[in-house]
Amino acid sequence: MPSYLKTNRHIESQIVDARERAQRLDDYMTAHSSKEDDYMARLYRATQTHLLRPRMASGHLQGLLLRMLTQMIKPRVVVEIGTYSGYSALSMAAGMDKGGIIYSFEINDEQEDFTKPWLEGSPYPAKVEMIIGNALDLLPPMDIKADMAFIDGDKRQYANYYTLIMSKLKAGGWLLADNTLWDGHVTDPDYDGDAQTKGIKAFNDLVAADPKVEKVIIPLRDGLTLIRKLSD
Q: H-helix or E-strand containing 170?
């Protein structure tokens, strides 16, 4: 066998081994975490079978973290950019006290037919208001101050989302941003020309240089950044 074929097979074997290790760890974490709510399990299943990019949904482990963080922060007003199938919105709604509200912006109007019924049929229909359109256009004129925000929209616009959310977030409020490691592409020079990777890196650099916030990146799934606004 030519040496280059042996090298390729060795690399492929390493990739398979890495994926298997990651899956075993994911299975272990799932087995040692609280079980997924039946409604959320059905929503995640429907997301997998009916939508084109189901990996965009937060999923069980991240959903649990969002719910528990919401329970700790106790926000009255939450802004979400990127509703998708509604999994993250409902996870946060589950952790909110009665009377809380999530303004969830979804730029893809074709998503409404799938997501709206799941939001309205959940135990928390009054807590989530799905708004179709671009948050960069629709959120600025809204007279709200948020206690918490979650960004999971267009990766190319993350830096713009950050600037917008910071203007709407109370001092002491929390911003959570998903996909901030972007499958490791943020440290891979092969992706330096990729528009979405560039958007994530610009966001990460902007947050890192902002003295008005404290921040930490958690390597959960695709990277989740927790940001606390210290002052206006």
A: strand 169-178
Beta bridge partners of residue 216, listed in sequence order:
226
Torsion of the alpha carbons at 110, 50, 185 and 215, rounded to the nearest 10:
70
Instruction: Name the packing angle between helices 3-31 and 59-73 (round to 10°).
Output: 40
Strand pairing of 224-229 and 213-218? antiparallel
Q: Which residues contact 112 (CB under 8 A, 6 or more apart)?
A: 106, 130, 132
User: Kind and range of the H or E element at 159?
Assistant: helix 158-168
What does each C-alpha distance from 202 to 11, 157, 192, 196 come to in angstroms? 31, 9, 11, 10
pLDDT (tens digit per residue) in 72-106: 999 999 999 999 999 999 999 999 999 999 999 99
**Nearest CA among 75, 65, 72 for reference residue 220:** 65
* Size of the chain in residues: 232
Query: What is the arithmetic mean of pLDDT over 119-148?
Result: 97
pTM of full prediction above 0.85 = yes
Long-range contacts at 138-143 (CB < 8 A, ≥ 24 apart):
138/105, 139/79, 139/103, 139/105, 139/164, 139/168, 140/164, 140/167, 142/103, 142/168
* Dihedral over Cα of 140, 133, 92, 26: its sign: negative
Query: What letter represents residue 60's amino acid?
Result: H
